[in-house]
Structure formats: structure tokens, C-alpha cells
Amino acid sequence: MGRLGRGHVGRLPLSPGLASALGLAACLLGACGDSWLVNSASWPRPEPAAEKGASPELAAAIWAGMGNRPPVAVEQVRPCDLCCFYLKHWYGQPDRDRKPSAGFDLAMAIAQRWWWIAGLGRHPLMQGLGHRQSWYAYRAATLECAAWISWHWSTEQVLATWARQQGLEERALRLFGKELDGLESHEIAFLVALRSPRYDWFCKSKKDGLANRNRLLMDMQAAGAIGEAERARASKAPLPEAWVASREQWPCNHDAGSLCGPKSDACRIHGVCEKADRGCRAGSDAMCRASWLCRGHGACTASDGRCAATRAEDCRKSLLCELRGRCALDAGRCAAGSDEDCRRSRACEKRGLCRARDGACAAGP
After folding, report:
1. Which of helix, strand or coil describes residue 264?
2. What would the pLDDT profile of 302-344 be if each residue is shown by its tens digit?
3. For the chain, what is the radius of gyration of the CA atoms?
4. Please, which of 109, 138, 326, 335 could form a disulfide with 330 given CB 3.0 to 4.6 Å?
5. Strand, coil or helix: 333
6. CB burial class (10 A; 0-12, 13-18, 19+) of residue 323?
7. How far apart are CA 5 and CA 269, in angstroms?
8. Are 160 and 51 in contact (CB under 8 A)?
9. pTM of the model
10. How far is the CA of 29 from the CAs of 25, 36, 144, in angstroms?
11. What are the C-alpha distances in Å from 131 to residues 48, 126, 143, 166?
């Protein structure tokens, strides 16, 4: 949803004078409002991703990619700052360089994504509200949730959850054939820039992709995550071939007349290359075998219009087997079937995950 602009002021339920008075009251009551903010539980809360200890390069890239200045540390937001920020946005006079607290935009992105993932638009508190009131409730609930996150989560949890929600691990496998913690600085910069709202990727070319990545590399250098020599070297590295091919061959596939065409993301990544009554479907095993899901996840067989893993041989040839030891077929997915599968994987070599437990490789005696 877009931000309310100046043209919406006349339709707000509060007059400017009353809104200003409420903002002043919030500032005066900010000290005693902290306990209400951090203990409020009107809405369900998101669960943080497991802390994996993001590398300094990845942490700096995410932090700078969202427009934050070093050091990398999420600060607790106070109700006073939150209310003032909220009112400025409602009345169309936001200061884009000023935030309620450092890292608040990361917490806000997590809260907004959580709203849709959890289906909170159907929450009992939203029942009976009109369109305008639902918009106000959505803004208030996500802002309050972001503030709660800033009080209850560590910086590492915020970074890990943002990376999980944006699918960085999956994209690292698809674009570079590597685990997230095995990426080089130029690969990290490109991956984060690809998901950051600061960079415009709509119908962009290879030249624009290089500019976006190199801009983030400069921000990483400014944060001290990489040196001048590393930035210069990384700036000369090529972009991933998979992304370049999709841009040059089909730069605007969503406007080109066929969302299911052979050059579309739906076909190349998910193997759904055939138009159906609702969306796209995988019409044959050949479609699946030519897709990323087959190479990455062993899903090489068309089943009920989707690509699925049905053969152990496909799992053994997949990237999941090579990187994470998931070489056996288990209930329609590739999973770690034995300690031997894990010991042969990069996860064992680099991270010590050499024992098969519950379908995945884990550390242990």
C-alpha cells in the first residue's frame, strides 16, 4: 500500500490541530507510555528467525541497503518518536532521512510482511471496519508491531528474520549456487540490493544492475565492512548469468503478454510454463526438468500442475544434496536420509552439520 499524501488530509478523521495536540500529548506521556508499548498484545506477534551470526559483510549490506548509517544496532523506539513519525506520514510531510530509531525500517518491513503472511486482515479486531478504517488499523498495528520488535528482538534476530522473509538463502542458491554464508562481497551486495526498497529494479538492464550493486558496495565500505581494495575488486565482478539472461531476454515479462511464457520467471524458476484457468501450471516433466526447482530442489516431475520431487535420483543430483546433504526422497521432498549424506555435503565441511536429524543435517556427536 502506498503512503497517504497531502491530498488525503481533508479526509482524515482528525483535524490538524487535534492531531498536533495528540502528538504533543504523546510526547509528554512518552516516558510512562513505554511499559504500555512493550507489553501490548492486541495482535499476534511474529517469531524471530534463528540467529546464525550473519557475516559482517552481510550485516553491513542489509543495514546500508535499508538506508541506515553505522553502527549496525537496532535501537528501541519510544512512543513519543513513534507518534510524531506516524502523524508526519499521515499528513504527507515525512522527513525521509529521519526515522524513529536506527533500524526501525527493518522492523517495519518485518511487521508489514508478517501482517500478510499471518492473514491479520481477517483478524477479529478487523471485522466490521470499512476500507478507510482498515487502512488506519493496518498502519497503526504494523507500526506498533515494529516498535515491539525493536524492544524484544536482538539486532541479529532482526537481520536474520529480514533475510528469511526476503528469501535470501533461496536466491543465493538460485543465482550463485552457494549457501548464504559462502557468498563473496559482490554477491552479497547484489543479493541485498535486489531486495532493498532503496533500489529501483523495474525493467532494468545489466548496466542498471551493476550501478545498484556498486552503490551498495560503496555503502559497505563506508560502514567499514570491506576495504577500498575489496570494493574496487568487487565492483569489477560480473553479475550472475541467470539474472542477466532474464533481463536481456525478457526484461519486463509481466508486461510482455504472457506470464507463463518460456522466458518468464514462473517458467524458468518454477517450471509452470503452461497457461491454466487460474495462473500457470506445469504441463509436463520436461518443463520441470528445465526449471530451477529441478536443479536446486530435485523437483523434476510434473504432478497436479506443479513440479514435485518424486525420484531419489533427482534428489541426489540437486544442489540441496551437494550443499546441505538432502539426497534422499522423503514424503515428496528431498531430505537428509543418513549421516553419510551429511558428511559428503558442504554443510558438514564448512559448518560441522554432519548428522542427519529430522530430514536435515545438524551438528552433534
Report:
1. coil
2. 998 889 999 999 999 998 899 889 999 988 889 999 999 999 9
3. 23
4. 335
5. strand
6. buried
7. 37
8. yes
9. 0.67
10. 6, 11, 16
11. 30, 10, 18, 28
